[in-house]
Amino acid sequence: MQSATKKRTVRLGLAGLALVVGGLSLAPAAGAAANSDSHPRHKQLTDEQKTCLEGQGVTKPEKGTKPTAEQREAFKAAAESCGIELPVRPTA
Fold this sequence. Notes:
The protein has 92 residues and is mainly α. It is built from three helices and no strands. It has helices spanning 4-34, 47-55, 69-81.
């Protein structure tokens, strides 16, 4: 027969294992929600808006580079021309 301490240790170990396995089973669902395409802070452009911006001569900067001041100003002017409302950046 096992002692009370051994039984308690086995029970606590099994309970801990159940919590870990249960937590891991929920992790993929949480990760999928965080990686969805619809980011709440970024409005997605419609195909019509993208076409309008392209017609205004606006192109995306190369991957890994930031737009120049001139490119940002051109985008703002094109967005206004295309009726796209840009988000307001908070001032520090």
